[in-house]
Amino acid sequence: MDLEAVIENCKQMFQDPTFGAVRRWKEAHPGRKVVGCFPVYVPEEIIHAAGMLPVALHGGGPSIEIDHADSRIQSFICSISRSTLELGLTGRLDAFDGLIFPSICDVARNLSGVWQRNFPSQLSFFIHFAQNIYSANAVPYLRSEYERLRQALEALGGVPVTEEALRHSIAVYNENRALLGQLYQLKRRAPEKVSMTETYALVRAGGVMPKEEHNALLRQVLPELEARDARPMDRIRVILDGAFCEQPPIEVIMGIEQAGCYILDDDLAIGRRWLEMPVSLNGSLPDALTALAATFIGHSVPSAIRYDGPKVRTRRFLEKCHALNVDGVIFTWAKFCDPAQFDYVLLKDALDREHLPHLALEFEEKMSVFELVRSQVETFVESILFYS
Ligand code: SF4
Question: Ligand 1 atom 8: the closest Cα is on which residue?
Answer without folding.
Answer: 105
